[in-house]
Amino acid sequence: TTDVIIESEKGHKKYAQEAFFMLSSEDNSVIGFNGELKFASAMMQLAGMYHPVAVFTSGHGETYPEGLGMLFESAGFDVKIVNLTEEPLPENAKVIVINAPQFDFIGINEDGIENEIAVLDDFLENHGSLMVFMGPDTPYFPELEEYLEEWGIQFGEAVLKDTDSSTTADGLTIKATLPTEGSGASLHQTMRELSSVPMTIVKDASPIYQLFESKNNRNVSSVLTTSRTAQAFSSETDEAVRGQFDLMTLSIQTDYVENEPMNAYVLACSSASFADSVYMSQSAYGNRDIIYAAMRLFGVDQVPVDIRFKQFEDNALTISTAEASGWTVALVAVVPVLIL
Q1: pTM of the predicted model, to two decimals?
Q2: Cβ atoms within 10 A of the Cβ of 139, count?
Q3: Burial environment of residue 243 by CB neighbours within 10 A (0 to 12, 13 to 18, 19 or more)
Q4: Quick one: which of 119, 142, 224, 280 has the fewest CB in 10 Å?
Q5: What Cα–Cα distance (Å) separates residue 302 from each residue in 78, 80, 132, 220, 265?
Q6: 8 A C-beta contact, residue 294 and residue 54
């Protein structure tokens, strides 16, 4: 009785009542109305003939980031969770997401189990897209990581600290640097042109290394990096390596079909927290805009997800610099003088 159904001749979308509201990350209280975005998303998706599917893998201890799933739905995707060893990919699968796996993917075997690496490879060869989110707590996976290395992407076994560009004293919550060159920089070009660029947060990250720039029709570039003073701490050595490291990397394979370029994409992020709900739902962070830009790059841009939720109540104080200076003088100087 609390569900909302948007229906057309081509199908329907059903949403729970809470999907139309924004909740506080602190106490889950309702802070705003998000119905305009939900209705726009449903109507535009139902009006189209093509329903792209975002597939989140399961069976490897992955977590399902609800904020990322909701962003896919807002962008016109159907979201499905699929175990690649038990069921085929949906017909209209456009993107596969691997988020914080705890076990490796299955490769060539003699047990009759579906070769998951082959499934991923076939999907990308047919111009699909792959997103991988793994962090320093993720174990080394020979099958999955060796496959990613074929795309020029290698996850490093270290913990990154960037105390010069961090929101926390321990340097683990990194404010990412936005490169201006390469295909990866296109994911935040619009955001960089804003008068006030929102922070992009990469928490609890490991380094990503580019194994090549161009090879076998594949080009690799940086999307997000640390500052030049970041340090990579490895458990194998007591010494930290200082430098600038990739936090997110994009690899693109371009093939020509009847003289038309067709692309496949692999987007790798070195943090399993990048797509947490707090970063996907708040406009103060650039994480959401970068993921949505990736969706546009992957070939689907059906819904204007820049429709912001309407906040019910705003308790923030907004004062001018002059007023702030006046109150500072009053509280720091005038009041103490009167008391004395």
Answers
A1: 0.78
A2: 12
A3: middle
A4: 142
A5: 12, 18, 23, 27, 19
A6: no
In the prediction, which pLDDT does 194 show? 84
Tell me the average pLDDT across 271-300.
86
Computed over its alpha carbons, how large is the radius of gyration of the chain?
22
**137-170 residue pLDDT tens:** 999 999 999 999 999 999 999 999 999 999 999 9
- CA separation for the pair 106, 112 (Å, rounded): 11
Contacts of 322 by beta carbon, 8 Å cutoff, 6+ apart: none
Q: Show the tokens assigned to 239.
A: 């010494």
Sign of the dihedral through C-alpha 11, 17, 21, 26: negative
Per-residue pLDDT tens over the stretch 61-80: 999 999 899 888 877 788 99
| Interatomic CA distance for residues 4 and 2, integer angstroms | 7
Helix (H) or strand (E) holding 30: strand 30-33
Q: How far apart are CA 130 and CA 97, in angstroms?
A: 6
Q: Give the H/E segment covering residue 55.
A: strand 53-57
Is beta strand 241-243 parallel, antiparallel or unpaired with respect to 230-233? antiparallel
- Give the count of beta carbons closer than 10 Å to the beta carbon of residue 131: 23
Read off the DSSP letter of residue 292. Answer: H
